[in-house]
Amino acid sequence: MTANILSNSVAPGAAEYGGDEISALVLDPGYTVVRGGFAGEDVPKSVVPSFYGILPSGPERKHVYGENAIYTPSPNIEIGNPMSKTGVVEDWETATDLWEYAITSRLTNTKPSNPMTNGLNEKTDDLKQEMEGVEMQERPLEENPLLMTETGWNTGKGREKPIEIAMENWGAPAFWLARSGVLSAFSAGKASALVVDIGASSTSITPVHDGIILRKGTTRSPLAGNYISDQLRLIFSTAQPPIPLTPHYLINSKTPVDAGASAQATYRTFPPGTEPHPSFRALQEERTLTEFKESVVAVWTPGRLGGHNQHGGTNLDLARTQAARPFEMPDGYNQLFGAERYRAAESLFDVKMALSDAAHPAPSPAHALPALIQHALSQVDVDIRPHLLANIVVVGGSSLVYGVNERLKQELEALYPGPRVRIFSPANVVERRFSSWIGGSILASLGTFHQMWISRKEYEEHGPGIVEKRCK
């Protein structure tokens, strides 16, 4: 592995940083999930929630990771997230542990546990010395180069810290940092594209030209999946009567009821002082709202929901005449949802239709999807705008809301009547949700990419600042 040090001028052997014998790892951290897997594979093998549990453990607080840990209502469990809602890391120590869990739980072997604390051995100085040697030898990425993704608006520190973690903590032999927008374009088979990524915490517009991100044109907005969830909460709370949102973990049993009737359920109680933190309930409510978005919510087409149709009436009145969708809450309450299912996502395109209250102020018109794209295109060279409009790649889990692509095409054709507007979006749910990881998997498995890696020797010579110079 260390026989030949990688440089820009000398390509490594096939078995050194890629090929069949040793495969690179691709790690794609996001606000909702961390995706990890081997380069060259179709889908990530490791998909771990970015949220983590915080449990009281004596004077210390213990962090637990993974779905089983964060979805179990353990006494006093609190939920945290090392990422900010803009997709930038805020807590590097926890992020490092979370990413290592994502790698070691599915992809590589875990670090050996300390035999001095497993209850099977007596504490001896010899054992302590042996264990120190093991800890120095066993690191999760000693045989795997690592490609990590980042947002297009990442900070300088946010770019340098990942290579420090990969080299110092995990022992990676080589590293590369790639922009998620560029990788999403690659996953669609395009070197130039306008990437529209509608995720959970934010929506981003990334112009990519010949594999290079045009940073001046990169824009983002908080109107995304979590925003639709907030709109649903307002719809439920202002309904007459209000629609209850009780997560699964609070339900012991339920009895079937007619549509619109009050729920008949028995609820779970916790001994005083052991109730989960409100952040745990918020996470569980979000799971229910995600089910609702996947099965009920849709975007109105054609035209705007608040506008008028060709018959002279309003589209909102027309929406009330459309077939409604049923949905049953965890406590058994069920209802048919008509115009409400279009209202929840409408303000992604038309902020005048947004519901608001003191806790959820009305969004800015500049945050609407058509305005974001218009601003992004205004910041790039006029000669490449038609090419970007003809190569719009829509990705992200929240882009799966029914009707998003059709409505976006209508809005852009109204804004740009001359150029041809073409939208490319994977029909496969997995490809839509994991597009940046898939792009990284393609890139890191290319034979021509092997000489691009930042080697350990280069890192030791130049320090973490080499990322700014090499990973443009």
What do these coordinates show?
By secondary structure, this protein is an alpha+beta fold. It contains 17 helices and 19 strands. Residues 1-21 and 127-137 have low confidence and may be disordered. α7 (225-238) crosses α8 (278-295). β17 (392-395), α13 (404-415) and β18 (423-424) form a beta-alpha-beta unit. The protein has helices spanning 14-17, 67-70, 92-104, 125-137, 156-169, 180-187, 225-238, 278-295, 315-320, 340-346, 369-378, 385-389, 404-415, 429-433, 435-444, 456-462, 466-470, and strands at residues 25-29, 33-38, 46-49, 52-57, 60-64, 78-80, 146-150, 174-179, 193-198, 203-209, 212-213, 219-221, 251-255, 264-267, 325-328, 334-337, 392-395, 423-424, 454-455.
Provide the β-strand percentage band. Answer: 15-25%
Mean pLDDT: 89
Extract low-pLDDT stretches. 1-21, 127-137
Count all strands and give the number.
19
Question: Going across the major beta sheet, what is the strand order?
Answer: 3-2-1-7-8-19
Global geometry: flat
Q: Let me know the largest β-sheet.
A: 6 strands, mixed
The CA-CA distance between the termini, in Å, is 27 Å
Structural class by secondary-structure content: alpha+beta
What's the helix count?
A: 17
Rg for CA atoms: 25 Å
Query: Which bin fits the share of residues in helices?
Result: 25-40%
